[in-house]
Each structure stands twice: as structure tokens, then as C-alpha cells.
């Protein structure tokens, strides 16, 4: 943790410190429950890179057979890999205004931002605390707003939580521009974990992912949406206000829109999922 972070810690209010501790505790409990239920982390702890082929020998792991080579040569070859480094995970967390929904919170609800921040910190606990890997954080809206460098130190988890708490969601979303900044500043290949509601034009999402893939990053996408956005439970006449477009307002009967809205959301989420799989 650098001097600026230490200085910031000394001047944090009791309320902010309490919010950080709640976030850290929630993330830690999520990870402990996950590990206890699964017994083993799904992450391998090391990234591997294909190195070469060699002829199959009795006792070799059949999972490493290259069946494409066998189809061409009618001979059995296994793939050999080189262990590169511990996993280096870039956590890309959307902190644009739409992530603040719902703005009027019932006691049993988290905003999309709270949920995504908890998930991001949980992944950091899993990678750093349980596996000794390195994790870094990048907050973005229409640009890179804040960045925490890679670290494999347990103490860095507090800095990640602090950065999330001190940067409330605001501004507009531009994933293409933000991801372009990441690619230009992080030349080394790693794992990129993106957490966002992706309320952008789908083509912008596709172009942003293409940039990460072109840089040979392994990409994991978490699409975070609120139940209101997925189910549209409104019944009475409602005034909808834009979160990122402050002057956008629509006064309407939601029941007349519900069917077409749900259809549009289903098409949107299916396209994002399809683009990821492609």
C-alpha cells in the first residue's frame, strides 16, 4: 500500500471505514462459503501456454491428446504446456451512473454497484487470499476513473475495498474507450474479469471485447442487472427518469409497455451472451 493510501486511511470517516469493513466481511463470507461448498477452487492458480507436441507414450494423460493432429497424421501426439506465471487478474468494474440502481433502496436490496463490488472483492479474495495470485482493479465509466495496480499481498484487498467505497457510481458508460485504455497500459497477457450492466449499444460491447481478445487476454464477463430490469414489476403510472441522461423522463403506463420491454431485454441479454460465446 502506497503513502497516499496510508494517508487516506488516516482521514477516512468512521462511516466510510464501516462501509469498507462491511464490504470486506460480505466478500470474505461469500468466498468461505463457496470454498467450503466446492472443496476446491475452480481456478488453477497458474496460467499455461501451449509449447509443443510430442509422440504419445503409455501413461500420458489422454486429455492432452491432440485429435486434430491425429486426424491428419494417423499418429498420436500429446500437447505440452509451459507454466507461465501465477494468474494476473484485471478486475474491470463499471462505476457508471446506471450501476447505482435502485436509488431508493429497500433494506433487503443491494444496488447493482454494491452487488458487483461485492462480487469483484470476492474474486480478489479468492485469487489473492486463497491462491496467492495477483489481482488489480480498474474502475471505468466513459473513461478509466481509478486504477489499483496488481498485487498478491493480502493487505492489498483493503485498498481494493477502499477504492470501491470512495468511488460512487456516476457518469456515462463507454466500454470501448475504457477497454482501449486498459489494452494500451497493460501490455502483458492476463485474465480480464468485467463486471457491468453493459447498458450500451451492443456493437460497442462487441468492439470492446474484440480489443481484449486481440490483446490475447482471457476474458470473463459478469452481466449484472437488477430484478426490476429483468422482470419490470411496475403496475401504476410511473415517471421513469434516466440515471445517466439526467434530463430524460418518460411518464407512462408500464403495463402497456411490459410485454415489448421484456422482449427487448431478452433480445439484448441473449445477444450479449451470444457474442461472448462466439
Low-confidence runs of at least 5 consecutive residues: 1-11, 38-47
Strand order of the largest sheet: 5-4-3-6-7
Structural class: alpha/beta
Question: Helical residue percent?
Answer: 40-55%
Order of helical and strand elements: HHEHEEHEEHHEHEHEEH
Radius of gyration, whole Å: 22 Å
The backbone outline, from C-alpha atoms, is globular
Biggest sheet features: 5 strands, mixed
Number of helices: 9
Strand elements, count: 9
Proportion of β residues?
15-25%
What does this structure look like?
Helix content is 44%, strand content 22%. With 278 residues, the protein is α/β, with parallel strands linked by helices. α7 links the parallel β6 and β7. The longest helix has 25 residues, at 14-38. The two termini are 39 Å apart.
Notable features of this structure?
278 residues, alpha/beta, five-stranded mixed β-sheet, 9 strands, 22% strand, globular
Concise summary:
This protein has 278 residues and is of the alpha/beta class.
List the topology elements.
Blueprint: H1 3-11, H2 14-38, E1 46-55, H3 67-73, E2 77-86, E3 88-94, H4 112-130, E4 134-140, E5 144-151, H5 156-165, H6 175-185, E6 191-196, H7 202-214, E7 218-223, H8 227-231, E8 238-241, E9 249-252, H9 254-277
Parallel strand pairs: 3-4, 3-6, 6-7
Antiparallel strand pairs: 1-2, 4-5, 8-9
Helix pairs in contact: 2-4, 2-5, 4-5, 6-7, 7-9
Amino acid at each position: 500500500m502506497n503513502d497516499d493510501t496510508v494517508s487516506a486511511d488516516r482521514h477516512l470517516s468512521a462511516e466510510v471505514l464501516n462501509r469498507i469493513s462491511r464490504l470486506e466481511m460480505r466478500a470474505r463470507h461469500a468466498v468461505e462459503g463457496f470454498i467450503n461448498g466446492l472443496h476446491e477452487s475452480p481456478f488453477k492458480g497458474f496460467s499455461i501456454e501451449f509449447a509443443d507436441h510430442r509422440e504419445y507414450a503409455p501413461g500420458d494423460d489422454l486429455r492432452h491428446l491432440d485429435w486434430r493432429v491425429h486426424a491428419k497424421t494417423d499418429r498420436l501426439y500429446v500437447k505440452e504446456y509451459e507454466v507461465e506465471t501465477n494468474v494476473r487478474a484485471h478486475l474491470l468494474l463499471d462505476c457508471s451512473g446506471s450501476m447505482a440502481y435502485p436509488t431508493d433502496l429497500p433494506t433487503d436490496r443491494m444496488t447493482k454497484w454494491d452487488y458487483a463490488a461485492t462480487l469483484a472483492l470476492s474474486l480478489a479474495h479468492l485469487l489473492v487470499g486463497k491462491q496467492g495470485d495477483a489481482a488489480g482493479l480498474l474502475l471505468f465509466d466513459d473513461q478509466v476513473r481509478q486504477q489499483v495496480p496488481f498485487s498478491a499481498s493480502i493487505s492489498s484487498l483493503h485498498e481494493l475495498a477502499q477504492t470501491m467505497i470512495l468511488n460512487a457510481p456516476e457518469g456515462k458508460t463507454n466500454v470501448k474507450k475504457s477497454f482501449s485504455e486498459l489494452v494500451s497500459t497493460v501490455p502483458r497477457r492476463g485474465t480480464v474479469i468485467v463486471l457491468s450492466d453493459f447498458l450500451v449499444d451492443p456493437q460497442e460491447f462487441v468492439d470492446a471485447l474484440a480489443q481484449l481478445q486481440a490483446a490475447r487476454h482471457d476474458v470473463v464477463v459478469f452481466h449484472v442487472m437488477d430484478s426490476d430490469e429483468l422482470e419490470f414489476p411496475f403496475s401504476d403510472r410511473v415517471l421513469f427518469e434516466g440515471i445517466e441522461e439526467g434530463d430524460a423522463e418518460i411518464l407512462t403506463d408500464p403495463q402497456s409497455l411490459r410485454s415489448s420491454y421484456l422482449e427487448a431485454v431478452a433480445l439484448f441479454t441473449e445477444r450479449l451472451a451470444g457474442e461472448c460465446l462466439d
